[in-house]
Amino acid sequence: MPHTGSDVFTIPPVPVYNPAVLSAYQGSYEISLAPNWVSNCRVFAECSFSSYASIVTELAATLQAKAADCILAPLRGSARPCLLLEVMSNGKLSFEFFDFHQGALGKRDDEIIEALSGTLLRCDPGNAIYKIQIVDTAIGGHGIVHLASLLRHVHDSKHQFRNQYWDVEAHLIHPPTAPQNLDRMRSAGVSEAHYSMAVTLHQVDDLIVEDFDAAMGFKLEYDGTTWFAKPSIRPGRFLLKGGGASHLVNSENLYLTFTDFLSQSATENLLTDPNRTMVGVVWDDYTQKL
Q1: Pairing label, strands 96-98, 129-137
Q2: Structural domain that includes position 122
Q3: pTM score
Q4: What is the Cα–Cα distance from 102 to 268, expressed in whole angstroms?
C-alpha cells in the first residue's frame, strides 16, 4: 500500500502568532444603514470562520516543525491560507507561489513544469533528501492528482534530481465532500525508492474566500443576534442584516475585509485555546509585511 499520510496528526508545541493585530487587516470596512436586503443566497455560518481558523492554526505549527526545503503554493486556492500562515509564523514560513490555474485540465503542463522546475532547482538544498511541502485547497481532488504527476515528471526528468530522494507532503484544505473525492485526493500518495508523497487532509466547514462569488453570503451569531451578509451588485459593498435593521458595509477591498474576519476568528481561536499561553508581542516589525 502506498504511504498516503494521515488525516489526524498531533499539533507540535511551536509558537503560532496572532494575525489579527496586523494593521492592514483592521478597519478595512465601515457600516451604514441600508434600505434593502437580498436573501436569496447560499449562506455559511460563523463556525465556518472558526473551522478555517482552527485548521490554519494547526498548519502554522505543523509546517514550522517540518522545516521543509521548499513549500509549494499552487495559485488556485492557496493564496489566502498561505498568506495567513506566513503571518501566523511571523515570517518563518515562506511559500513558493506558482500559477496552477486550470492545472488539472492538462492544457498548461509545459508551462507549469517549467515553473516548478525553476522553483525546485532554485530551492534545492543539495542534500540527499529534498523535503517538499505543498499547501492547497481541494474539492474534487483532480488538481492534486495532476500536480503530483507533474512533480514526479520534474523529479525523473532532471539529472540533478534523479538520484535525490524527494520527501513530499501535500496538505489539502477541503470542505465536506463525497467519499470518492477524498479517495481521489489520497490516491496522489506514493512511496517508492527515490520518491514519496504523503497526502494529509484538513476538513473545514467552507473554503470561504476561495469559493467566494457574488452568489454567496454568510450568517453568524453574535450577542444573541443572528446576522446575515451578502455582497452587493456594486463592487466594494455588501449587505448586512441583523438586530431588526439592514446595513450596508463599504469596503475598498472585500478580499481584505474577509481576511479581517478570518484574522479575528484566528485570534479568538488562539485566545480561547486552553493549551496555548501568550508569551509576548512580536508584531512591531511586521505590520507592513502584507
Answers
A1: unpaired
A2: 50-203
A3: 0.66
A4: 35
Q: How far apart are CA 67 and CA 92, in angstroms?
A: 9
Contacts of 146 by beta carbon, 8 Å cutoff, 6+ apart: 103, 104, 106
Domain assignment present for 2: no
* Cα distance between residue 275 and residue 168, in whole Å: 29
Q: Among 250, 262, 256, 253, which Cα is nearest to 220's?
A: 262
Residue 218 contacts residue 42 (beta carbons within 8 Å): no
Q: Where are the alpha helices (DSSP H) in the chain?
A: 46-66, 79-88, 109-123, 142-157, 179-186, 254-272
Look up residue 113 and give its three cell numbers.
513544469
How many angstroms separate the CA atoms of 29 and 153, rounded?
Answer: 46
Higher pLDDT, 21 or 131: 131
Contact between 132 and 196 under an 8 Å Cβ cutoff? The reply is no
Give the cell for residue 45: 455560518
Task: For cell 463556525, name the residue.
Answer: 47
Instruction: Count the domains in the chain.
Output: 2
* 3 grid coordinates: 504511504
How far CA 234 is from CA of 8, 44, 145, 249, 251, in Å, comes to 42, 21, 38, 11, 11
List pLDDT tens digits, range 4-48: 555 656 677 777 776 655 555 565 555 554 444 444 444 556 677
CA dist., res. 212 & res. 208, Å (int): 6
Q: Please tell me whether residues 121 and 230 are part of one structural domain.
A: no
Over 80: is that where the pLDDT of 164 sits?
yes
The verdict on 64 and 181 lying in the same domain is yes
